Amino acid sequence: MATTSPPDKPNRSAFWARRVITLALLCLLGLLLPLLSHLLADSAGTLAWLIDLASHWQWLFLLGLVVFAGLACCRDKRWAVLLLALPLPWLTASAPAPTGEPQVQLFAVASANVHLDSRNTQGLATWLAQEKPDVVVLLEVSPAYAQGLRTLRDYPFQHIVAQDSPFGIAVLSRHPLQQVEVVEDAQGIAHIEAQLQWHGQPIGIIALHPMPPLSPQYHSVRNAKLAALATQAAASAIPTVLAGDLNATPWSSAFSGLAQLGLRRASGLAATWPAVLQGVLGLPIDHVLVTPHWAVAARQVGPPLGSDHLPVLVRLVPTLEK
């Protein structure tokens, strides 16, 4: 009777070592994708779209590199060189706004995607009462949710475009809203542009929720809309804040050139979607962007409000830059 020899243990060990090294190298490639995505920022093709979609997952690639490079080091310590790539998510993210010292007068901006199916505004009301932002941008505002917003007495100045679709949008303010305009794009998606007076200074507010990049076309439209609004904000010559669910992370080509056009990222790199597990390994797609008139005194991700997104809050101070 013939017998079979047991598998060669060293060969099996080498097999798994190769797999671990391959995964570590793939994670390294993922961390480098934002650089490639920015190089293809002017491209409207499928390749640029796919690379941009993959570039969002920087925290997942970072975790994978730590795990798989760590395992590779157990076999050969020379693979520790891969860990030199750990700072990449911070280095390849879009340029942040400068930081500033907290002052007595802080202009606080909050943004939250409240989810189309939400009906209860109590979680939002409690958070706003605690943090007291000056302006709140809300996305996915349904007619039912809008009814609850109108009871928020601390925010008497409101402009709400409620819809039974993911593109209902609202701006709530402690200060009178002026020159409010609802602008619809070719896809029928509205954003809000307004001004308010803050300690005698006119402030521009832009609330935005573009179509998710579900296709190369939507990817190009989102990028072009952000670039156009950045140019517009810079041309207005007044301190301006753009906030909303931008369906793009700071590593996306959507942020390519925005700083040069006039908008920098005031919000951080912490994930805001999905809200499960406080956004662990998720995507930071909810943002506050500002013109050079502002510096950032504080930024944070807020608590769950009954949505699949976490809110963001940024406290700003004026700078001398115009």
Task: Give a topology summary.
Blueprint: H1 9-39, H2 46-55, H3 58-75, H4 88-91, E1 107-113, H5 122-131, E2 135-139, H6 143-149, E3 157-161, E4 169-173, E5 177-184, E6 190-198, E7 201-207, H7 216-236, E8 240-245, H8 258-261, E9 264-265, E10 286-290, E11 294-301, E12 312-318
Parallel strand pairs: 1-2, 7-8
Antiparallel strand pairs: 1-12, 2-4, 3-4, 5-6, 6-7, 8-10, 9-10, 11-12
Q: Which descriptors would you attach to this protein?
A:
322 residues, 2 domains, single chain, 23% strand, Deoxyribonuclease I, Chain A, 6-stranded mixed sheet, alpha+beta
Question: Care to describe what's here?
Answer:
The chain is an alpha+beta fold and 322 residues long. It has two domains: 9-90; 107-318, Deoxyribonuclease I, Chain A. It is 33% helix and 23% strand. The protein contains eight helices and twelve strands. It has helices at 9-39, 46-55, 58-75, 88-91, 122-131, 143-149, 216-236, 258-261, and strands at 107-113, 135-139, 157-161, 169-173, 177-184, 190-198, 201-207, 240-245, 264-265, 286-290, 294-301, 312-318. The strands form two sheets. The protein has a six-stranded mixed sheet with strand order 3-4-2-1-12-11, with no helix packed on it. Strands 5-6-7-8-10-9 form a six-stranded mixed sheet, with helices on one face. Helix 1 packs across helix 2 and helix 1 (9-39) packs antiparallel against helix 3. The protein is elongated and about 70 Å long. The mean pLDDT is 93.
